[in-house]
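Project outcomes to date are best conveyed with an example. Our students and postdoctoral researchers have been running inverse folding experiments weekly, and each run begins with a structure described purely in C-alpha cells. The record below, which covers 507 residues, was selected by the lab manager from last quarter's runs and is presented without edits.
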C-alpha cells in the first residue's frame, strides 16, 4: 500500500513539473546568466525579507539569515557552533555567571563610517531590554540589573540572577544610536553593507571594505527571490542564479549533469504539523496524540527526500547535542488502530475535517503536507491544504494565530535550547500554537533559575512534556541540499539558520 501511494503521488508531481517546465520554456527571458567572477554572485531565496530592516525586530528566519551578513553582536556564532569575538574582542564571566565584562575591539566601523562606541553598545542592549517594546525585546535581557561602561572600551553587564547561557544573547546586533530610522536604514558592522531592496524581487548587499575582520571574498551579492518552488530548477539551469539552499531530492535529481555541486547538511529546524491548541478539536490532547500515531514519519522522509533527514520527537534537533533526546522519536510509533482508538475516546470515532495552512514558497513543507493528508485518510480524518504566500503566513498564521494547523520548520535564533523551548511558555508572545501547560511553565522557569547541569535536566523535562501532551506532530530535522555553481566554493553549514555569504569564493 505504501509503495502504491508513493508511486501515485510521485507520478502526479512528475506530470505537474513537466507541465510547468513546458509552459515556462518561453518565459523569464529577461533573466540573464549571472556573472561568475570575483565580483558577483546571485543567490536564490524562497521569500522576501520582512518590511523592516531593523535587526532587533526580525522575526522570520529567512530575514535573519540575510541580516546575518550585515549586522553583528559583541560575539557571533561560527559554523562550528562556537561563539567567536566580534564587536568585542575579549570577554570575561565571573564565577556565578552574574557579571559579564566585554572589551570592545578597537576601531570597529559602522557601515556609515562612524566608529562603534560603548554608548552604541549600551543603547543597542537597552533597546532590547525594554519590556514595554515587545517588537525589540530580548526576554533574557529582562534579567539585566545594570549595564555600565567602566571606560571607553569596557562594558560590564550585571544580572539579577545567574544565567550560564547569557553570552549567546550577546549575538544581538549592535547598531548606532544616532540611526534615526533603523526600519529603513540598515547600518551594521558586518562584512556586507546593505545596498537596496526591490520588494518580491531582490536584496542587494556589497562588501564592506572597512570591515574589522577578514573581508568577504565576493564584492557584490544579490539575493533573488523565487517564491514559486517550481521555478527554482529553471532559474538554476538558466544561470540566472548561482546558488539555492534547501532543495528537495526531486529538484536535485533534475540538476544531475549540470554545472552545480550538490552539498548536503541539515536545516537545523523542527519541522512539524503545528496544531493550534486553542481551537477544536486540537484543544483535546487525545486528538493531538491520535494524529501523532496516524502520521508515518519514515514514509514522509522516504517520499520527500529519499530517506534523508532525521526523525525527531519533540521541539529539539540533533545539533543541540546535550539537550536532544533521540528516545522521544519512539513515543508515537506509527499505529493507525491506536489513532482510531484515541479519536473514539475523544468523541471523534467518525473522524473530523481540518485545514493545513502551508506557505507556498517552501516545497518541502508542501510535500510533507501532501503526504500527511493521504496518511490521515487512513484514520478517517480529512485534511485540506491551504497554500498562502509567505507574508500572509507571517501575518495571519504566525502573528495572528488564525489557523487550525500548519506545516513549517521552526529554527533556533541563538545557540541555546531556550531559543526553541521558550515559545511554548503559556504567555510567550511567539507561542503561535497556543500551547498551555502549567507543568511546562514550571519546568521552564526552573530551567532558567538553575545552574548549567540542572538546566539541561529541566529543559529535557520541557521536551518530555511537549511530547507527552502532543503539543504538535513532530516530524523531522530536514536534510539541507544546496546547489552551488561549480565556479564557487566556501559554502558553510551552520547549526543555526544562517547564510554566510562572506565565506563564499570563486574557485
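After processing, the design step wrote out the following sequence:
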Amino acid at each position: 500500500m505504501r509503495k502504491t501511494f508513493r508511486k501515485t503521488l510521485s507520478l502526479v508531481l512528475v506530470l505537474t513539473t513537466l507541465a510547468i517546465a513546458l509552459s515556462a520554456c518561453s518565459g523569464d527571458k529577461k533573466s540573464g546568466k549571472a556573472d561568475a567572477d570575483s565580483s558577483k554572485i546571485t543567490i536564490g531565496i524562497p521569500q522576501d525579507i520582512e518590511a523592516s530592516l531593523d535587526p532587533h525586530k526580525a522575526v522570520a528566519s529567512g530575514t535573519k539569515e540575510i541580516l546575518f551578513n550585515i549586522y553583528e553582536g559583541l560575539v557571533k556564532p561560527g559554523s562550528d557552533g562556537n561563539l567567536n569575538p566580534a564587536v568585542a574582542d575579549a570577554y570575561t564571566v565571573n564565577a556565578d555567571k552574574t557579571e559579564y565584562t566585554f572589551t570592545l575591539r578597537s576601531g570597529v566601523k559602522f557601515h556609515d563610517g562612524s566608529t562603534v562606541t560603548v554608548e552604541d553598545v549600551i543603547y543597542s542592549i537597552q533597546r532590547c531590554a525594554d519590556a514595554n517594546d515587545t517588537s525589540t525585546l530580548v526576554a533574557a535581557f529582562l534579567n539585566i540589573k545594570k549595564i555600565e561602561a567602566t571606560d571607553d572600551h569596557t562594558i560590564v553587564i550585571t544580572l539579577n540572577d545567574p544565567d550560564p547561557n547569557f553570552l549567546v544573547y550577546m549575538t544581538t546586533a549592535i547598531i548606532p544610536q544616532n540611526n534615526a530610522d533603523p526600519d529603513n536604514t540598515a547600518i551594521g558592522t558586518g562584512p556586507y553593507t546593505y545596498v537596496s531592496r526591490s520588494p518580491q524581487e531582490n536584496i542587494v548587499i556589497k562588501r564592506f571594505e572597512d570591515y574589522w575582520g577578514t573581508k568577504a571574498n565576493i564584492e557584490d551579492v544579490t539575493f533573488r527571490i523565487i517564491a514559486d518552488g517550481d521555478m527554482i530548477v529553471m532559474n538554476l539551469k538558466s544561470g540566472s542564479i548561482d546558488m539555492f539552499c534547501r532543495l528537495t531530492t526531486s529538484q536535485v535529481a533534475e540538476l544531475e549533469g549540470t554545472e552545480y555541486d550538490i552539498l548536503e547538511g541539515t536545516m537545523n529546524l523542527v519541522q512539524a504539523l503545528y496544531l493550534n491548541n486553542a481551537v477544536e478539536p486540537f484543544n483535546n490532547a487525545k486528538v493531538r496524540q491520535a494524529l501523532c500515531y496516524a502520521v508515518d514519519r519514515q514514509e514522509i522522509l522516504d517520499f520527500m527526500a529519499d530517506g534523508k533527514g532525521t526523525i525527531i520527537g519533540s521541539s529539539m534537533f540533533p545539533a543541540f547535542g546535550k539537550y536532544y533526546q533521540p528516545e522521544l522519536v519512539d513515543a508515537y510509533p506509527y499505529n493507525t488502530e491506536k489513532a482510531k482508538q484515541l479519536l473514539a475516546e475523544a468523541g471523534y470515532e467518525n473522524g473530523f475535517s481540518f485545514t493545513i495552512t502551508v506557505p507556498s514558497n517552501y516545497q518541502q513543507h508542501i510535500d510533507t503536507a501532501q503526504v500527511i493528508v493521504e496518511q490521515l485518510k487512513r484514520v478517517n480524518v480529512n485534511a485540506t491544504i491551504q497554500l498562502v504566500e509567505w507574508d500572509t503566513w507571517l501575518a495571519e498564521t504566525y502573528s495572528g494565530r488564525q489557523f487550525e494547523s500548519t506545516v513549517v520548520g521552526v529554527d533556533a535564533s541563538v545557540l541555546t535550547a531556550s531559543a526553541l523551548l521558550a515559545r511554548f511558555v503559556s504567555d510567550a508572545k511567539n507561542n503561535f500554537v497556543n500551547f498551555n501547560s502549567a507543568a511546562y511553565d514550571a519546568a521552564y522557569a526552573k530551567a532558567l533559575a538553575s545552574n548549567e547541569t540542572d538546566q539541561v535536566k529541566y529543559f529535557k523535562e520541557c521536551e518530555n512534556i511537549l511530547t507527552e501532551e502532543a503539543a504538535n506532530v513532530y516530524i523531522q530535522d530536514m536534510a539541507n541540499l544546496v546547489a552551488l555553481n561549480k565556479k564557487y566554493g566556501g559554502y558553510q553549514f551552520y547549526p543555526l539558520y544562517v547564510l554566510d555569504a562572506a565565506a563564499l569564493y570563486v574557485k
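The first strand starts at residue 40 and ends at 45. Residues 1-37 have pLDDT under 50 and may be disordered. The training component of this project remains on track.
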